[in-house]
Design a protein that fits this description.
Blueprint: H1 2-27, E1 30-43, H2 45-50, E2 53-58, E3 62-70, H3 71-76, E4 83-87, E5 94-103, E6 109-113, E7 117-124, E8 126-137, E9 144-152, E10 155-160, H4 162-165, E11 170-176, E12 185-194, E13 205-206, E14 210-226, E15 229-230, E16 238-243, E17 247-252, H5 254-258, E18 263-265, E19 268-269, E20 277-280, E21 283-284, E22 290-291, E23 298-304, E24 307-313, E25 319-321, E26 327-331, E27 335-341, H6 343-346, E28 354-359, E29 366-371, E30 373-376, E31 381-385, E32 388-395
Parallel strand pairs: 1-4, 8-11, 14-18, 15-19, 25-28
Antiparallel strand pairs: 1-3, 2-7, 3-6, 4-5, 5-7, 8-10, 9-14, 10-13, 11-12, 12-14, 14-17, 16-23, 17-22, 18-21, 20-23, 24-27, 26-32, 27-31, 28-30, 29-32
């Protein structure tokens, strides 16, 4: 008895499935479905251009629609099958209310829509010339990028109202990464006007819908950069350091890049440099490898010029050498000592680091004009003024 009940239950389930399949597959009952954010397309903008006009703004950019039809047909609807348009033909400068037209696949009916018309503001047309730059989109490996992109044309004319045209920074020619590989190839791709942050600017059209981009995908790698110098700075000048990038990005095949752990720049010749100097770097690279943005690769040679200082020595601060026994000596003149040289040698000097002397060997009583000798610690250059002083020698 229990077994019969189980059999009956199974038969009932199978029957229900068959009935459902018949209703859905054969009868195909009608259903309704809501589709949201259907973009409003503005058509016949060329007619505005011919009249020296352009769209300035609209109050809405998309609408929602509710459609009805057979379940199978409704489920087949894809993005782009529903077209919502606003016709700009014959519109005037200022505010225009334009009815919306909804085009649907055959067998589908429009039950309702969120908006019946759109407010379009139209202004005077202006033009501008903007550069066209290639932009890679899509997924690429972390160490891969587009290389050597050449765009034709290099510039395009844009059309729109002054407010919108002024927002445009450049025109992007968008290249899908799927189109590229390691071999250089050329593709016609869609273009769009964008602002400085890369956001597309609405209600601006371009003189062409596509641009030709020639490019390839290439591997890149970040490696340390080594920079050294050759030659010597002029006397009194010191090298404070070289301001250069710590790393650079190199491009090439994965095989070539795998063998490179660092790169070296040609030595910078510092001979004759007397002030901070910006120098373009030349990098030593194996064949097939190049530096990304090599035209922006510079180093700055930072130098420090000579320093000077002055000290005054009174007569009693000047040392007297070679005085005979039984004699005394005095100096009434003072001496101005000037020092000059590398900042590291001069900036730390004090009066105690400088020795001013006169040598009176063989001189007897009386007044004598004696040369002054000056020495200083380090490599500073010293000079005394006056170069001689009057020494009075007396007997004790």
């Amino acid at each position: 008895m229990l077994q019969n009940k189980k059999v009956n239950a199974i038969i009932a389930i199978v029957a229900a499935i068959l009935v459902w399949a018949f209703v859905v597959g054969m009868v195909n009952p009608g259903v309704t479905k809501r589709f949201t954010d259907i973009p409003v397309q503005l058509i016949n903008q060329d007619s505005l251009t011919q009249d020296g006009l352009a769209v300035d703004s609209t109050d809405i950019t998309s609408i929602d629609v509710t459609l009805s039809g057979d379940r199978a047909d409704i489920n087949k609807i894809e993005e782009g099958d529903i077209q919502v348009t606003a016709d700009l033909y014959g519109r005037h400068e200022g505010s225009n209310y334009v009815s919306l037209e909804v085009q649907l696949p055959r067998g589908i009916s429009l039950d309702s829509r969120s908006e019946d018309r759109i407010l379009i503001n139209i202004g005077q047309l202006v033009t501008a010339e903007k550069s066209v730059e290639a932009k890679l989109t899509g997924e690429v490996a972390a160490d891969t990028e587009m290389s050597g992109a050449e765009v034709d044309p290099e510039t395009m004319t844009i059309y729109g109202t002054r407010k919108n045209v002024d927002k445009v920074d450049r025109i992007e020619a968008v290249v899908n990464a799927k189109l590229l590989n390691s071999d250089e190839s050329t593709h016609d791709v869609a273009v769009k006007p964008v602002d400085s942050s890369g956001k597309e600017v609405a209600y601006v059209t371009t003189s062409r819908e596509t641009a030709s981009v020639t490019a390839s995908l290439i591997n890149f790698k970040e490696v340390p950069l080594k920079v050294d110098t050759t030659g010597s700075l002029p006397e009194g000048y010191e090298l404070e350091g070289i301001s250069a990038p710590d790393t650079v990005h190199i491009e090439g095949s994965a095989e070539d890049l795998s063998e490179i752990t660092s790169v070296t720049a040609d030595d910078i010749d510092i001979s004759g440099i007397t002030e901070d100097t910006r120098v373009r770097l030349s990098i030593n690279l194996p064949e097939g490898v190049k530096i990304k943005d090599s035209d922006r690769l510079y180093a700055t040679v930072n130098v420090r010029g000579p320093s000077t200082g002055e000290f005054t020595f009174a007569g009693n601060e000047i040392q007297i050498e070679g005085l005979q026994e039984g004699l005394g000596a005095s100096i009434t003149d003072s001496v101005q000592v000037s020092i000059s040289g590398a900042a590291s040698s001069v900036s730390g000097l004090t009066k105690e680091d400088i020795i001013v002397t006169v040598n009176v060997t063989g001189l007897s009583e009386g007044e004598h004009s004696v040369p002054v000798s000056v020495t200083a610690e380090g490599n500073a250059t010293v000079e005394a003024s006056p170069s001689t002083v009057m020494v009075v020698i007396t007997s004790n």
